[in-house]
């Protein structure tokens, strides 16, 4: 009960702690949101491309379109765009695929900048809160005229909580930011491979030379 009262008092007296609490909620929200988005749009690209190749080899374009419509992510969208523009020259096809890939990857990058920003500013906010807390502790000592190591230690301990909170938020935000960015780099390699090969696959399916 006493600890709960002290924490409530800390939040009341320290606006920085309130800001850090808000930052933690934002970080948690976007970590969950991005994780769910990546999971929902995940595609096993080698297996997926093998399936596409089978449809093309049998000239089952209707089934292929249906298969693509049930999938999400940049690779299915790129192939769908290529199928709808099979008569384009190779250079224009590659430009179309690049545009499609970039538009889809923007969806995956959405909100990641927020995690990156939180990983940078949370420790600074925590440090700022600590400085303000120490200033407040010494001001209270000067005003009341009473001090001692116990009073100073209590004030400093409460002030340092903001630094600890900022570091925790930054560590969590950094871990997940790096995780999602790695997923994006893998996706970029996969989509580049699709961009290079899909035109040839379509030409082969249509009985033409690449």
Task: Please give a structural write-up.
The protein is mainly α and 210 residues long. The protein has one domain. 86% of the residues lie in helices and 0% in strands. The protein has helices at 2-13, 15-40, 45-57, 61-69, 74-83, 90-109, 112-144, 149-205. The longest helix is centred in the last third of the chain and has 57 residues, at 149-205. The termini are far apart. Mean pLDDT is 82; it is low at 1-5.
**How many domain regions?**
1
Number of strands: 0
Average pLDDT confidence is 82
State the distance separating the first and last CA atoms.
75 Å
Estimated helix fraction: over 70%
CA-based shape: rod-shaped
What structural category do the secondary elements indicate?
Answer: mainly alpha
Pattern of helices and strands: HHHHHHHH
Percentage of β-strand residues: under 5%
Radius of gyration over all CA atoms, rounded: 27 Å
Number of helices: 8
Uncertain segments of ≥5 residues (pLDDT<50)? 1-5
Summary?
This protein has 210 residues and is mainly alpha-helical. The protein contains eight helices and no strands. α3 (45-57) packs parallel to α8 (149-205) and α7 (112-144) runs antiparallel to α8.
List its salient traits.
disordered N terminus, 210 residues, mainly alpha, rod-shaped
SSE map:
Elements (H helix, E strand, L loop, with lengths): L1 H12 L1 H26 L4 H13 L3 H9 L4 H10 L6 H20 L2 H33 L4 H57 L5
């Amino acid at each position: 009960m006493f600890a709960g009262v002290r924490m409530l008092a800390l939040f009341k007296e320290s606006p920085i702690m309130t800001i850090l609490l808000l930052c933690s909620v934002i970080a948690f929200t976007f970590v969950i949101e991005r994780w769910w988005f990546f999971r929902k749009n995940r595609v096993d690209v080698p297996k997926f491309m093998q399936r596409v190749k089978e449809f093309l080899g049998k000239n089952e374009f209707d089934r292929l379109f249906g298969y693509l419509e049930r999938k999400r992510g940049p690779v299915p969208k790129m192939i769908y765009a290529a199928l709808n523009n099979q008569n384009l020259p190779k250079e224009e096809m590659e430009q179309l695929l690049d545009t499609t890939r970039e538009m889809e990857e923007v969806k995956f990058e959405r909100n990641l900048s927020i995690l990156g920003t939180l990983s940078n500013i949370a420790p600074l906010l925590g440090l700022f809160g600590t400085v303000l807390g120490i200033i407040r502790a010494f001001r209270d000592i000067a005003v009341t005229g009473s001090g001692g190591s116990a009073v100073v230690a209590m004030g400093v301990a409460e002030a340092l909580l903001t630094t600890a909170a900022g570091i925790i938020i930054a560590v969590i935000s950094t871990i997940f930011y790096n995780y999602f960015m790695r997923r994006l780099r893998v996706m970029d390699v996969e989509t580049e491979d699709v961009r290079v090969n899909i035109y040839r696959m379509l030409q082969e399916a249509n009985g033409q030379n690449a």
